[in-house]
């Protein structure tokens, strides 16, 4: 009688996700047993968990590992993206420490949910099976739905949470339908196996193209590209600012990691079918995001449309479909995480009495009242605009260079024009902070140790990545490979 054996599990491949999930459970139990929420203990446990996950990720650098019966793949892209996600989670944890108290959000569930969402993002970055892609997306999405609405007394947060949940559920259903069509066309949900079958003569090309379209819609919602971006401004505006920063940096990094894997690996043989569609989406996203940001009077809505525009710039690297394009996209995601988290950190510091000053008028004359943080915000906005020698300029340079090398000169021209448009709304806020006299109550920042630390770290990263980009870009080029 044959003896059944349990399948071998490469525990190292899922080590970071396991550490984050285990830490989330321990942090949740600790918070539930406390009579009063001890933010220091919960934040400390969260940072310790992220540190453990970082160590487990570091020892995977440069390795190719396939685990869970081919469902998880550790490679350069997944490892690099995981480090971006852990950096993001660290910054958000520090950013949240005093901010939650200022906003009167005394919920012990906050930190476990951050860890759980990060675990879903990490798992998504290394998912090598469409079923696991869907599960990881749901894990991170469910945690984010709750985080967005955690400020129960804020009607704006509740509205944002409900809107995000409804539209997110709709996009998940579309994604799952795409997974079903991909399985129907190829007989498998494994991304590596789909790569060998998607372009085969025996595969129904029409069914495969429909699957690619539905998968693209599902991913497009998560990374907020036009025309699947409508939720972004409202959700970013209504959510607690620390959660908004987490969504802007983390969800985008994880979403692009899985987009790269699915489209360049599974659908690589069909790239001449999907590249024209992504080409059009990238141009529209860059232009629409930049144009709509111009008319915003709320800083968080402005940063929301900025996030949409930057998604279009990252798509330029994806469309290049080369090793340099992958490396450029990875570098861009890292730089974007640093500069956008820094910008949101400055916004959180404007809430010393529990309410952020988000209108443009409240930032008038900030350079006279608090020149250090006005200078930091200026740095982040110059980088987001792509002004040299900031990191944002180098990020755009690398993705544009990869696109030109791939023969996508028209796409680069559109990107440059969109960058010129985007520079206007960034420079407008800089002018308000430095060149206009304050009138009445303006945005005086409430200094906190952790908030100041976050601004310092992200500002330093924005400068260093801009002045010395080659060292990080070398790592990104080394990481520009898939396995499976």
Structural descriptors:
mainly alpha, single chain, about 75% helix, about 475 residues, globular
What does this protein structure show overall?
- With 484 residues, the protein is mainly α.
- The chain has one domain (11-478).
- 74% of the residues lie in helices and 1% in strands.
- It is built from 19 helices and 2 strands.
- A two-stranded antiparallel ribbon has the order 1-2.
- Helix 1 runs antiparallel to helix 4 (110-126) and helix 10 (241-266) packs antiparallel against helix 13.
- The radius of gyration is 22 Å and the shape is globular.
- The relative contact order is 0.11.
Strand adjacency order, main sheet? 1-2
How many beta-strand segments? Answer: 2
- Count of separate DSSP helical elements: 19
Mean pLDDT: 87
Strand content: under 5%
Ranges where pLDDT stays below 50 over 5 or more residues in a row are none
How far apart are the termini? 33 Å
Form type:
globular
- Class from helix and strand fractions: mainly alpha
Helix content: over 70%
Tally the structural domains: 1
Radius of gyration: 22 Å
Main sheet makeup: 2 strands, antiparallel
- H-E order: HHEEHHHHHHHHHHHHHHHHH
Helices and strands in order, then pairings?
Layout: H1 15-33, H2 39-58, E1 65-67, E2 72-74, H3 76-102, H4 110-126, H5 130-148, H6 155-186, H7 191-197, H8 205-223, H9 231-238, H10 241-266, H11 271-294, H12 299-320, H13 323-348, H14 366-369, H15 371-385, H16 391-405, H17 409-435, H18 449-467, H19 469-478
Antiparallel strand pairs: 1-2
């Amino acid at each position: 009688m044959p003896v059944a054996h349990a399948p071998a599990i490469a525990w190292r491949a899922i080590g970071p996700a396991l550490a984050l999930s285990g830490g989330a459970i321990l942090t949740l139990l600790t918070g539930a047993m406390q009579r009063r929420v001890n933010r220091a203990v919960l934040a400390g446990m969260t940072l310790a968990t992220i540190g453990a996950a970082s160590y487990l990720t570091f020892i995977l650098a440069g390795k190719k590992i396939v685990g869970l019966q081919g469902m998880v793949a550790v490679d350069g892209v997944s490892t690099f993206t995981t480090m971006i996600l852990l950096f993001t989670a660290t910054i958000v944890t520090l950013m949240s420490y005093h901010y939650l108290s200022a906003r009167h959000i005394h919920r012990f569930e906050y930190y476990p949910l951050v860890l759980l969402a990060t675990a879903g993002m990490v798992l998504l970055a290394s998912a090598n099976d469409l079923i696991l892609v869907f599960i990881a997306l749901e894990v991170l999405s469910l945690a984010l739905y709750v985080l967005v609405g955690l400020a129960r007394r804020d009607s704006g947060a509740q509205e944002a949470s409900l809107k995000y949940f409804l539209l997110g559920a709709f996009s998940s259903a579309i994604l799952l339908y795409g997974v079903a069509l991909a399985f129907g066309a190829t007989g498998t949900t494994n991304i590596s196996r789909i790569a060998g079958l998607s372009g085969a003569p025996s595969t129904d090309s029409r069914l495969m193209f429909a699957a690619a379209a539905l998968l693209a819609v599902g991913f497009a919602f998560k990374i907020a590209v036009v025309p699947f971006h409508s939720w972004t401004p409202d959700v970013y505006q209504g959510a607690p600012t620390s959660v908004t920063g987490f969504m802007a940096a983390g969800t985008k990094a994880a979403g692009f990691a899985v987009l790269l894997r699915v489209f360049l690996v599974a659908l690589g043989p069909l790239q001449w079918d999907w590249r024209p569609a992504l080409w059009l989406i990238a141009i529209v996203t860059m232009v629409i995001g930049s144009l709509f940001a111009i008319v915003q009077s709320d800083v968080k809505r402005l940063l929301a449309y900025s996030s949409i525009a930057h998604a279009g710039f990252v798509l330029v690297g994806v469309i290049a479909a080369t090793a340099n394009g992958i490396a450029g996209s990875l570098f861009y995601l890292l730089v974007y995480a640093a500069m956008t988290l820094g910008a949101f950190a400055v916004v959180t510091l404007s809430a010393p009495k529990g309410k952020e000053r988000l209108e443009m008028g409240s930032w008038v004359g900030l350079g006279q009242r608090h020149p250090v943080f006005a200078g930091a915000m200026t740095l982040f906005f110059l980088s987001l605009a792509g002004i040299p020698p900031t990191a944002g300029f180098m990020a755009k340079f690398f993705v544009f260079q990869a696109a030109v090398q791939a023969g996508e000169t028209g796409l680069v021209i559109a990107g440059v024009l969109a960058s010129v448009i985007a520079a206007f709304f960034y420079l407008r806020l800089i002018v308000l902070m430095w060149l206009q006299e304050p009138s009445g109550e303006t945005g005086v920042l409430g200094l906190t140790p952790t908030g100041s630390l976050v601004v310092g770290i992200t500002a330093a990263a924005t400068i260093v990545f801009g002045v010395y980009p080659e060292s990080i870009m070398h790592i990104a080029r080394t990481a520009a490979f898939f396995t499976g």
